[in-house]
Specification:
elongated, three-stranded antiparallel β-sheet, 162 residues
């Protein structure tokens, strides 16, 4: 019986179904208007895309492709002059070039020997050389050991070059 009283009280304060449907419809209508306004803002047409010629000054470009078959290869584009030492490098019709000048492509490494040293040997080898000799100059700088005289090199276990 207590439960029936409670149900009667609730049903007394409930809204009629037509009012509920009208409230839902009005809410959906307001949401629709709000979304339409917000959605319409993104539908404003953007200005048309215009393609124009690039009027900036042309930049000359030199691309080095690398060393192949003992020659340096690359391409030139634009108004550019390329020199290898004092020699002007002229590209072919496609803009490609090739430098084969042995003097220009030689890798020159200058290594200063410590003062008073006359001989050099490799940490990985068993032979010592005069500093100015071709054998002495071919030793990688990180592997070099210097000696003031041949006796010091022989004492360290190295033998003279032939």
């Amino acid at each position: 019986m207590e439960q029936n009283d409670r149900m009667r009280r609730i049903s007394r304060f409930s809204l009629p179904p037509s009012f509920i449907l009208a409230a839902i419809g009005a809410g959906l209508f307001l949401c629709g208007i709000t979304l339409g306004i917000l959605g319409g803002l993104s539908m404003i047409p953007s200005p048309p895309l215009m393609l124009r010629d690039d009027t900036r000054p042309h930049v000359a470009v030199v691309r080095l492709g690398g060393l192949r078959d003992s020659s340096l290869r690359g391409t030139l584009s634009g108004e550019v002059r390329l020199f290898a030492g004092d020699t002007l490098i002229l590209p072919d019709g496609s803009g490609s070039f090739r430098i084969t000048d042995r003097n220009f492509l030689t890798n020159v490494i200058t290594i200063k020997a410590p003062s008073g040293m006359q001989f050099v040997a490799s940490k990985r080898g068993r032979t010592y050389y005069a500093i100015g000799s071709s054998g002495g100059e071919s030793i990688v700088p990180a592997n070099r050991i210097y000696f003031p005289d041949s006796a010091s090199a022989q004492k360290a276990g190295y033998k003279p070059a032939k």
